[in-house]
Specification:
Blueprint: H1 8-17, H2 22-26, H3 32-37, H4 44-53, H5 89-111, H6 129-140, H7 144-149, H8 153-166, E1 170-174, E2 176-177, E3 180-184, E4 192-195, E5 202-206, H9 211-226, E6 231-233, H10 235-241, H11 245-258, H12 261-267, H13 274-285, H14 289-298, H15 304-321, H16 330-338, H17 341-351, H18 357-364, H19 369-378
Parallel strand pairs: 1-5
Antiparallel strand pairs: 2-3, 4-5, 4-6
């Protein structure tokens, strides 16, 4: 049986890049530790399986030293000390997948004569927070009343996503890599990102995050698109400590778009218990309580000390109750992960013979025609 020469440091690099410890890989590859130490070499089939398990491009194992990978889009995160110093394989794979889908949709949009979206890159920071927020509300909606009328946070988030898609923006949400429940996306690493393009703007939301937090991330990434700026964000830190001027501005626009200052001041009950008030207003505006706490601080209703304490306590509470993005009916989950605009366009192109079925399956993250047909039914797409 032929075996493959791989430098031991490449095994270690692939494992660390995938955020896995050796014990986790030993469960699937009993001789993994011997591969990493250089005592034993894997077979070609074993190396292919390891590449799949660690989300590592197969060819990387034949390099002379580990490559230095950079994020393919600007990084606007202010990372906590415990956060990863370099992008994980899961984050990179998610960005690459969204870029492939965006590339396909851009070509499709141009081919069918879709006009460029004038609001993408149509604003500047010098326009001011209120002006940009008003422009977003005009195009997308983001009505607090509509969100408040929703039966729960998931419904409110779904309504927001529908409004954004109707404006021509692709929305994708996932809490794992593709359909792999064993590869969760870490909220501590990122909450969302925006890929700016006048024909195919795309927003990705980390569905492992709390639903109300995803709403704020969505509004934050809309601000990025209005400025024509792609980038990846982790909003929790920037809400507390600030960050780049761009991130601070996008946070302010998101807060104003979802919780207009005038409405917030009118709703605030100064005599009420602050914690109860944070949660009441979070329900009223259907946003994360963290946003309400920051809004209260910016409005002068909280001291810096009170803000720091309230924010820290609420972060800990949310971490305890945070839900996952997986589970449930596969086809309903897929429509949540892919949105509706992208898969519907892809199905049209495929059925018209302009896109190969194999390419459609790859872009949709599926492998069978039966799955394609069932997903079409879930989207109410006539076959």
């Amino acid at each position: 049986m032929s075996r493959v020469d791989v430098k031991p440091e490449l095994f270690r690099w692939a494992r660390e890049r995938a955020r896995l410890d050796a014990a986790a890989l030993v469960e699937r590859f009993p001789k993994y530790e011997q591969w990493e130490s250089g005592e034993v070499r894997p077979t070609l089939k074993q190396l292919e399986a390891l590449a799949s398990a660690t989300l590592t491009p197969f060819g990387y194992f034949f390099l002379t030293e580990p490559p230095r990978e950079e994020l393919p889009i600007p990084d606007f995160r202010t990372l906590a000390r415990a956060a990863p110093r370099r992008p994980s394989a899961r984050l990179l794979e998610t960005i690459y997948t969204c870029q492939r889908r965006q590339d396909w949709y851009r070509e499709y949009a141009v081919e069918i004569g879709q006009e460029p979206l004038p609001f993408i890159g149509g604003s500047r920071q010098r326009d001011g927070v209120e002006t940009v927020a008003a422009s977003i509300r005009k195009v997308v909606g983001l009505s607090a009343e509509r969100r408040a009328s929703a039966s729960d946070a998931e419904t409110a988030l779904r309504l927001m996503c529908q409004e954004v898609e109707e404006a021509g923006i692709l929305i994708m949400r996932n809490g794992v890599v593709g359909n792999n429940a064993w590869q969760p996306l870490l909220v501590e690493e990122f909450r969302g990102f925006a890929l700016s393009d006048v024909h195919a703007p795309l927003i990705f939301l980390n569905a492992a995050d709390a639903k109300a937090a995803q709403m704020f991330t969505l509004a934050h990434e809309l601000a990025h698109l209005w400025l024509g700026q792609s980038g990846i964000s982790n909003l929790e830190d920037t809400l507390v400590r600030g960050g780049s001027a761009l991130e601070v501005f996008c946070n302010q626009v998101a807060a104003e778009a979802l919780v207009p200052e005038q409405s917030f001041r009118a709703e605030w009950r100064g005599e009420a218990d602050p914690v109860a008030e944070f949660r009441r207003l979070a329900r009223r505006f259907r946003v994360s309580s963290l946003v309400i706490i920051r809004r209260a601080y910016d409005a002068g209703f909280l001291t810096r000390e009170a803000f720091d304490t309230a924010f820290r306590d609420e972060v800990e509470r949310i971490a305890r109750v945070r839900g996952s993005g997986g589970g449930g009916d596969f086809y309903k989950t897929q429509t949540s992960r892919l949105g509706r605009r992208f898969p519907t366009a892809l199905m049209v192109s495929t059925l018209e013979g302009k896109t190969l079925y194999r390419d459609a399956y790859r872009l949709l993250g599926i492998s069978k025609g039966e799955t394609f047909d069932q997903l079409a039914k879930e989207l109410n797409f006539p076959l």
